[in-house]
Amino acid sequence: MTLETEDLLQSILDSLDRIDYIRPDDIPDIELYMDQVTTFMDNRLKNAARNPEVDKILTKTMINNYAKNKLLPPPEKKRYSREHLLMLIFIYYFKNILSISDIQTLLGPITEKYFKSVTEKDMTYIYQEVFSMEQSQIRYLEKDLMRRFKSAGEIFEDADPEDKEFLHQFSFICLLSFDVYMKKMIIENMIDHMNSSKDTDSSKKDK
Fold this sequence. Notes:
Blueprint: H1 3-17, E1 32-33, H2 34-45, H3 60-68, E2 79-80, H4 82-94, H5 100-114, H6 123-131, H7 134-152, H8 161-206
Antiparallel strand pairs: 1-2
Helix pairs in contact: 1-7, 7-8
């Protein structure tokens, strides 16, 4: 493993430590107007963007589209609650890998039961439980990345010396891409099962 390759691996691992995480306590308890919502999301998640100085985490158009597609309950008097922000965070993570209809399937039951819940089991409860797993997952991911990086660096031993660095990085990207592909397929299969179960339940109710 060359010094340049080691620097790349360390850069990747360092980037994991910079991943922003919005804790429930960080979210305002007051209602916000749309400009305040986009500013809050941009400030808290901009480090996750590929080009933080240019890319927008959330725009007014995005929020309007989410509401139009029933991913997000409409605001009250143009103001968005703490629960709206929690929903937007879920949407932010889902939208990079799932279709609108898949996100609807996932968030529909959550919105129906927990949005504006008057019990302790509300949107904050859902968010807290799900994202409490984050730190342990990052530590696991670091170890997994190091293992895959090492595996990718052990092939192409007979390649031309000037090509090895690129081929090792290409192999590493292929390993990660296959992993993402497989996990995405598993998620889609689970969502299809949810839809199938929902259709079965509806048929039973209609009889």
